Amino acid sequence: MTEEQTDHSLAWIGHHAHDARGTVDGMLGSISLTAIRTTDPVDFLVRMGADRDVLERGVPYKDIAAQWSGGDFKDGQCMFGTSGEWTFLLEDFLCATWYLDWIEEVQDAMPRPGEELVCVTLNHHQSPAKLLYSPGDGEVWSMGIGEESLLDYPERGDPTGKVTALDEALRRAGVVWQVDDLLPRTFRTVGEHLGIRLPREEIEAGLLPAAGLPDPTQ
Known about the structure:
The protein is of the alpha+beta class. It has 9 helices and 7 strands. The chain has a 7-stranded antiparallel sheet, with helices on both faces.
C-alpha cells in the first residue's frame, strides 16, 4: 500500500479534490465534508430534508441505483457515517449541500446551541473553496480557504475560544494563499484538530449508507 493509502488523516480528500470519480463505486475525488458533533445522523439529515424512511433502510451508497425508487432520489446524493462523537456527510458534486442551506438560511439545518459543526466545501461552481465552522454556540464563521482567516470579523467575539484555536491550527499548518497543497493541508488540519477520522476504503467502495438531499436553491 502507498503512504497515502495508509495515512489516517483527511489529507487524501484534498489530494483528490479536483479528480473525477473514476471507477470507484463510492467516492474518491471532489469530496466536500460536513460534520456535526453529538447529533444523531438520521435526525440531522432529516433536518436537511432527507426522508427518514429512506435513511432507516440503510441502503449502501453503491447500491442506490439498484435499490432506490424514483421517489427516493433528491437533487443530490451523499453518504454518511460517524466518527466518535461526529456525524459526517460526504458529497462529490459541486459543493456541500449544508453550505447551500447556510446561504439560504434553512433554519432546521443550522447548528443549534451545543452542536459543533464544520464544513469544508470545494465550491467547484464558484471559487474559492470555503471552510465554515460553528463552535457550539449557534454562530457560524466562514473563510475562503487560502484567502482569508476565520477571524476576519473584527466586530465579532469568540467567547468559546474554539474559533481562534482552529484558526491558529490552520495557520500553523500553512493554510495560506499560493501553497501547492492548500486543500490537503486544510483537510488534514480539520481532521486532526477536531478529531475526525474517515474510513477511506469504505468510502471508495461505497459501503456507507446513502441519503438524498434537496437543493435549497431550487
